[in-house]
Structure prediction request, 236 residues.
Amino acid sequence: MSVSPYDAIAELYDPWSRSVVEDVPFYVAEARKAGGPVVELGVGTGRIAIPIAHRVIHVIGIDSSRAMLDACRRRAEDAGVADRVELRLGDLRRPPIDEPVPLVICPFRSYLHLADDGERVEALEAARAALLPGGRLVFDVFAPAPDDIAETHGRWLEREPDIYERADWNTEARTLTLSVRGPEGAATMALSWITRDEWQRLLEETGFTVEACYGWFDRTPYRGGEDMVFVASSPG
Prediction:
């Protein structure tokens, strides 16, 4: 497996994302509803997995970054939930899941790392194969608004103290080159976005039924904003 750009910012990731908390109760609620075990794709440092594990739910966390998995392991140990957080090296398109589960989640826009529809289909098919009949895939993505692009394009912005990020948008290709730098590392990564209707089509083509598409983690129905939170079920 190739080196992940997140390897270089594993120690920077938590301070970089410290303000992102709005999605945690949402994913914890979905995990409690499913009852576990839960597969989290793009587990990172455990920002979602550890709160789920605190609810006595087993989490299988998958990430392509060895350094992020190491950080997650340390955090789970510090939180006293290491026995309920099982970590595996793997990517979104070929996650190492041998046992079917009732819930697969992919938080914090991780599916934007998929470069094209071929990779998206591969990842969605892998998620469906990991689910029990009637199981659910829950994930969030976004499509940027023109004003967001105009305000951020090509500029280094301080997201957290001493941590900067730069967004270079290509609206024709619908790609984002995101660069992050701080005292503990720097990285650049490529992201790609598609519309809500395109996600709906791909989910249906891969055998899912879309139960809901929310516009935010408070379960407000999607009405055309940037954020999309999908809840999709596999065939029963």
